Amino acid sequence: MTERMRRVIELGEWHAEWSAKWAAEFHPEHHLRDALLEAPPEARQEFFERADRILGLGRRTQGGQDGVEDLDGARLV
Which of 16, 29, 52, 76 could form a disulfide with 57 if both were Cys (CB 3.0 to 4.6 A apart)? Predict the structure, then answer.
């Protein structure tokens, strides 16, 4: 198994764990993008912090136009 595949699998496992934890707060069974948009701010922060570590990415910052998060200066959609 490649490192990339291992990370993708680990990210999927993290999403399942995170969804189960936050299920009472919102409806995380939706598509990941929709679940993250509906999630409380602390849930989004928790998800992205661990997801970034799993994927080996730099630290995200909150903010940007209309609350869209930035990652090392790149716009995320």
Answer: 52
